[in-house]
Design a protein that fits this description.
With 328 residues, the protein is mostly helical. It is 68% helix and 2% strand. It has a two-stranded antiparallel ribbon. The radius of gyration is 19 Å and the shape is globular.
Length: 328
């Protein structure tokens, strides 16, 4: 018997990350281990399990040549690989602290998702010409400051909530809104940026985005269902969201994003022929955008997606927190 792949897990038919994360509803009961083994392992990853992209999605020779475009992608994937590695390790506590089998199975699959993302981001650096024998050393060198300034404070917040405070639902809210919810729009932008310049990188980003839809929607449903059962938890949920957003406003993301986007800006001009007429979003050509504008686009997507998920969770009052965000 042939099992059809659900649309949200189909590599070619799934909605984009923003649409899916803002509009789909999935729960731990929908996304158990059996779902992952069929819809994801035999659906999303079909023909892409090893590298994250199909054999026909090639990396152009110019992406292996020294220059700002290659450097931008190496920074982006290097930083994302470390972020996904940290996420996989932090989520192991979610597996350990899961209150039931559905939650345990779902987060076990998310640990695997994040570990796979880290691997395909990391391995694409080798496809870009980074020597395999120096891969881990190279990533450690280029990401040291990013890890210390951005990833470590966020990881400590999430791990403290689930491991030290024993607040499983609070940690899910923190991870969904602060970690997944803030990094996901940048991931969506990544797919759109590299689609024509490096089709392999574009496919890798797209596949990861399909997984992030599942992570965001299921995480949101866990918080929503808990608040329905335990309405007194609302004040604690508000504390978590407030603290998480304040932390995100404090970490210096902007300087790292602009470093990468300025390199991309310089490099994409050398390949304007590939991008002629290509719109990064409806009505706006990628070639017409600047580094700061692309950052602002991701920020706007972040707020729109977070607002949608907070309303779904049953925390509409938390959307006011988004209006108080400060420049980073």
């Amino acid at each position: 018997m042939t099992r059809s792949v659900p649309r949200e897990a189909d590599f070619d038919l799934a909605p984009d990350l923003l649409d899916g994360a803002m509009n789909l509803t999935m729960t731990t009961r929908d996304c158990d281990l059996a779902y992952w083994l069929t819809a994801v392992a035999q659906g999303t990853l079909l023909g892409r399990a090893e590298t994250g992209h199909s054999a026909t999605a090639a990396t152009p020779d110019f992406m292996r040549e020294d220059g700002p475009l290659r450097e931008a992608l190496i920074l982006e994937l290097g930083w994302r690989s470390v972020a996904e590695d940290r996420a996989a390790r932090a989520l192991s506590y979610f597996v350990a602290e899961a209150p039931g089998v559905p939650e345990m199975e779902f987060f076990a699959t998310q640990v695997l998702d994040e570990a796979r993302h880290a691997r395909v981001f990391r391995d694409h650096l080798v496809e870009l010409g980074v020597p395999a024998e120096r891969l881990h050393e190279t990533i450690a060198e280029l990401s040291a400051d990013y890890v210390a300034d951005v990833l470590t404070p966020i990881e400590e917040f999430v791990v403290r909530t689930v491991r030290d405070e024993g607040d499983f639902v609070g940690a899910v809210a923190a991870f969904t809104i602060v970690v997944e919810g803030v990094l996901a729009p940048a991931a969506e932008l990544s797919e759109r940026k590299w689609d024509r310049l490096d089709p392999a990188a574009g496919e890798i980003a797209h596949g990861a985005g399909i997984d992030e839809i599942r992570h965001l929607t299921v995480g949101s449903s866990i918080v929503r269902e808990h608040l329905i059962r335990e309405p007194g938890y609302r004040s604690r949920a508000m504390e978590i969201v407030t603290e998480g957003r304040r932390l995100w406003d404090e970490v210096p993301v902007l300087k790292y994003v602009l470093r990468r986007e300025n390199l991309f800006q310089e490099g994409m001009r050398d390949h304007a022929d590939l991008l002629e007429g290509y719109e990064v979003f409806p009505g706006r050509e990628l070639l017409e955008t600047g580094a700061t504008e692309r950052y602002d686009i991701a920020e706007r997507w972040t707020d729109e997606m977070a607002e949608a998920r907070l309303r779904y969770m049953g925390l509409p009052e938390a959307t006011a927190i988004l209006k108080t965000a400060t420049a980073r």
